[in-house]
Specification:
Strand content: over 45%
CATH architecture of one domain: 7 Propeller
CATH topology of one domain: Methylamine Dehydrogenase, Chain H
Helix content: under 10%
CATH superfamily of one domain: YVTN repeat-like/Quinoprotein amine dehydrogenase
CATH class of one domain: Mainly Beta
Number of strands: 67
Distance between the termini: 24 Å
Number of helices: 5
Length: 838
């Protein structure tokens, strides 16, 4: 897993100077290979079978090991029997499926560089392994350091590769980006953004019903009394300028929860004192990127005449199934709607019935015969009643703009098509705005060539009723327009923009929190000016300004959510919130600056569930900000507490309220939510004869399996059945007398006595008789360096004595070759050699 960062020197030693231990363990031709794969332990996971049996899987630096009997017997898999490479950088288990992330090291110009090599998966307990090598984890540094499984979706946190997922059992993989800037950074190969470098990922389905998520905004309207906001998760309404809100969805009368378009009015005439609001609804998922026609399912219209107390529904064929209401406008009491392939339609009876409006008989014939052209697909509509009794309807299509002029009849006296020969040809008209001030009337139209993309988008302005047009905002997708006197506001994919000089200069607004971080993204979708208040909607909430954009208030609408994906990056924790339709539309960021977590480099994440509570844990290190330590939140990320200051925290495990952590200074346990910690280090095996002992103080993994504590580091695997009072030490070694080790030997060799976390060399021997054993270590000139004595050696049993690389004066010895002599009872003498490389 994360051991690359702290054990790179060990890997270099092993690669350059293989020992008899590794050679002996790799001679077997059985499948799977018997024994424990490597003492370099990474992840530990348990597989619980329906009959009550448990399989324990352990990822190591030399393959993946498996035991079905609690650790008494092991088998392992490496590149010779199914894996892409030998190093296991991450491990996950779901049901009877095991996923492993694979890595390897390669010498490049004399430097050892870690490379990713994709994933392996087994569904039959290791008998066969599938291989998946997506490009995000198949190059130098592009390594998956963590894997999480959510039903059929596999998530992986990859350094340089980003946060990726597969929804088809590993066949294809896609990146999930925190924002458009991260996407651009990855796709253009810069790899400079820290929020593209991920180390940890966890799936959170413990989402309390009262927990809320932010809604994406589709449209904003004012009916003269209430402000209405259309979102992906229903309607929001406010009668007090946004100080309080009322929510409407399918539980309160809407026929669908996706609301795409709005228009309304309130009449205060003597004959009509009612309000009216028309809502275009849909099912499916709204995309905020080109192509310009999102794949949604129209669910018709909802409408209310009593501010939402009662909702009625109409489902005309023009706004259902593959057709839906892109835009709604109201002229007097006539409702107009642009319905894509459903055409331009209108209703004279407040939405009860609808009819198509055709530009000519040819258009009517094409519609009736299902032979639509792009100019028959209507995407937006705006009305101009400033010259009553004449009414002008502007309607944008997928290929040009129509202008309908009505006088005193229901039929258009004039229909003008701005298409061939016009500056708008052959573009899709995506949004319209009508600006009126003094004696000026200006038509604004945002256009994009169909299928080309945002770089070719522009916004056009006409001051002469559409006769001539001037282009502005090239390369910007304008999704909505609003005006107040001479000022025009534009909601764009590159921020909220404003011009006061007719479009020559555009100012862009950032909406920031108190520490200067953007809390509203650049992805704006809608804008509305009500009196002198500016309302702007984004994919991540609603913003309001009552002082012409100088200051802003932000509203995050609420809805119960289904799950969240928490991902640890080099820029803090990111939380992707998924709604009840299993699509995320909210990304939260927790960092050292904004939420006081211990550090911005998040290398481990875990969720603790106890007594109806959920505690989120994160192990962090500094990137520019912060320190080593752990952070935890009891309120789903709103606030964070810290503990273990100064420790690198690589992993967590939980036994009810008891917290276990694998840290740089030992395996630790807390019974009081991180206030105090018990430390377990240098564990010795319960079997005093074997003398097995863990020499490294830095633990990288920990797991609670069937009430037992399992933990691993660079020096082996340990297990405790009594909450840490005693330990079994599991380490691989070549038995004395077998091929590869017929006499005493030392391992690892070379070894470094100065590696962080500690390391020893072990001299393994087998005496023929009981009694004391003396081991003398000599330098290359045969000068005695150290004498080691063990008084309780047992005949015919493999035993080990550790040497820390120091002489009798407790000085670390120099690099070089050293010889050792084993003196056992009965005159037994064994010689061997080892190498020290600091």
């Amino acid at each position: 897993m994360i051991k690359y960062l702290v054990l790179i020197t060990i890997i270099l030693i092993i690669v350059l100077f293989p020992t008899k231990t590794w050679e002996g363990m790799n001679l077997s031709l059985d499948e799977p290979f018997p024994g424990f794969a490597s003492n370099d332990v990474g992840d530990i996971r348990a597989m619980y079978l329906p009959g009550g049996d448990t399989i324990i899987w352990v990822g190591t630096g030399r393959g993946i090991s498996k035991t079905t009997d609690g650790g008494d017997n092991w088998v392992f898999y490496d590149r010779r029997n199914g894996l892409n490479q030998n190093q296991i950088s991450a491990l996950a288990v779901s049901g009877t499926t095991v996923w492993v992330a694979i890595a390897y090291d390669q010498l490049v110009e004399g430097e050892l560089i870690p490379y990713g090599r994709g994933f392996n998966k087994t569904d039959d307990f290791g008998e066969t392994w599938d291989s998946f090598i997506p490009q995000q984890v198949d190059f130098a540094g592009m390594i998956a350091y963590d894997i999480a499984i959510d039903d059929t979706t596999v998530w992986a946190a990859a350094w340089y590769g980003g946060l990726i997922r597969s929804q088809d059992f590993g066949q294809t993989w896609e990146n999930v980006f925190v924002d458009s800037f991260a996407r651009k950074d990855f796709e253009e190969g810069y790899f400079q953004h820290l929020n593209n470098r991920f180390f940890a990922v966890v799936v959170d389905t413990v989402c309390p019903i009262e927990k809320k998520l932010k809604n994406s905004i589709n449209d904003i309207a004012y009916d003269g009394n209430l402000i209405w906001v259309a979102t992906q998760n229903g309607l929001q309404a406010s009668v007090d300028l946004g100080r309080s809100w009322f929510a409407y969805d399918t539980t309160s009368g809407l026929s669908a929860n996706g609301v795409y378009s709005l228009a309304g009015y309130t009449s205060f005439s003597e004959d009509d004192t009612t309000s009216f609001l028309c809502v275009g609804v849909y099912s499916g998922e709204k995309e905020y990127e080109l192509p310009l026609l999102p794949s949604l399912t129209g669910e018709g219209f909802n409408y209310t005449s009593d501010y939402g107390v009662i909702w009625d529904t109409s489902r005309p064929g023009q706004a259902t199934e593959e057709k839906f209401a892109y835009g709604i406008a109201i002229a007097d009491t006539v409702i107009w709607s642009a319905c894509g392939r459903g055409g331009l339609i209108r209703s004279f009876d407040r939405g009860k019935t609808w009819e198509n409006v055709f530009v000519d008989t040819s258009a009517k014939r094409r519609y009736e015969e299902g032979l639509l052209e792009l100019k028959d697909e209507f995407l937006c509509v705006a009305v101009d009643t400033s010259a009553l009794p004449a009414t002008t309807i502007w309607a944008g299509t997928a290929n040009g703009l129509y202008k309908f002029v009505y006088t005193a009849t229901d039929s258009g006296d004039t229909v003008i098509y701005f298409l061939e020969g016009s500056e708008l040809y052959p573009n899709s008209v995506l949004s319209l705005g009508i600006q009126k001030y003094d004696q000026n009337k200006i038509i604004w139209a945002s256009v994009c060539p169909k299928g080309v993309g945002v770089p070719s988008c522009s916004t056009y302005k006409s001051t002469d009723g559409g006769e001539t047009w001037t282009s502005y905002l090239g390369g910007v997708w304008v999704r909505d327009l609003a005006s107040l006197n001479s000022t025009v506001w534009a909601a764009t994919d590159q921020g909220l923009k404003r011009t006061t000089d007719g479009g020559i200069y555009w100012e862009t607004f950032e909406i920031l929190d108190t520490v200067g971080q953007a809390i509203i993204p650049s992805n704006f979708t809608s804008v509305c000016v009500i009196d002198s208040t500016i309302w702007a909607g984004t994919v991540d909430g609603l913003a309001k300004s009552e002082d012409d954009g100088l200051t802003w208030e932000v509203t995050k609408f609420a809805h119960s959510f289904k799950k969240a994906i928490w991902a640890g990056s080099a820029a803090g924790i990111y939380k992707f919130i998924y709604n009840y339709r299993d699509v995320f539309d909210t990304v939260l960021n927790y960092s050292y600056v904004s939420h006081n977590i211990t550090g911005n480099w998040v290398v481990s994440l875990a969720i603790q569930e106890y007594d109806g509570k959920k505690i989120m844990w994160a192990g962090t290190q500094p990137t520019y900000y912060g320190e080593n330590g752990a952070s935890f939140s009891t309120d789903d990320g709103a606030t964070w507490d810290t503990t273990l200051s100064g420790d690198r925290v690589w992993n967590f495990a939980f036994d009810d309220h008891v917290i276990w952590t694998a840290t740089s200074s030992g395996l630790k346990r807390s019974n009081d939510w991180g206030k105090d910690w018990d430390v377990f280090n240098f564990m010795e095996d319960k079997d005093e004869i074997s003398k097995k002992k863990i020499s490294s103080s830095e633990f990288t993994s920990v797991a609670i399996i069937d009430g037992e504590v399992w933990a691993g580091n660079v020096d082996g695997l340990v297990k405790s059945q009594d909450n840490g009072n005693s330990w079994d030490v599991i380490r691989t070694a070549v038995p004395i007398g077998t091929p590869g080790s017929e006499t005493a030997y030392a391992y690892p060799s070379p070894f470094s006595p100065i590696l962080e976390g500690g390391q020893v060399v072990r001299i393994r021997y087998r005496p023929r008789q009981d009694g004391p054993v003396t081991i003398k270590i000599y330098d290359f000139a045969m000068n005695l360096v150290k004498t080691l004595v063990y008084e309780k050696s047992v005949a015919e049993k493999d035993q080990e004595i550790e040497w820390d690389g120091k002489n009798d004066r407790e000085d670390i010895v120099a690099n070089g070759v050293y010889f050792f002599k084993v003196e056992a009872p009965g005159g037994q003498i064994e010689w061997g050699k080892l190498v020290i490389l600091k």
